Amino acid sequence: GKDPTIVALGGGISKFDVDVLPKEALVDTNGAGDAFVGGFLAKLSQAADLAECVRAGNWAARQIIQVSGCKIPEGACTYA
Question: Which of 3, 19, 28, 34 is catalytic?
């Protein structure tokens, strides 16, 4: 969604803005949460900071909601 990502960690709460996806680009929200967790954990396993973990999670979720069904979009990965 367009609301900030909220993370509770170590007794604190952090909010991270989400890039808004144009409504016409939204195809299917199935798998968005799983994709977020995958992106987040991938960066966490690389000892990235919290902001980078959230950014990767949001990026992965953004990709998955632009295709029909729970599948990885075709083409090269554009995460940087």
Answer: 34
| Segments in the chain forming alpha helices (H) | 32-44, 50-64
Catalytic residue check, 28: no
User: Residue 72: CB partners within 8 Å, gap ≥ 6?
Assistant: 63, 64
- Give dist(CA 64, CA 70) in Å, integer: 7
pLDDT in tens, 27-68: 999 999 999 999 999 999 999 999 999 999 999 999 999 999
Which pTM does this prediction carry?
A: 0.88
Is 59 in contact with 49 (CB distance < 8 Å)?
Answer: no
- Torsions phi, psi of 7, nearest 5? -125, 125
For residues 20 and 63, the answer to whether their CB atoms sit within 8 Å is no
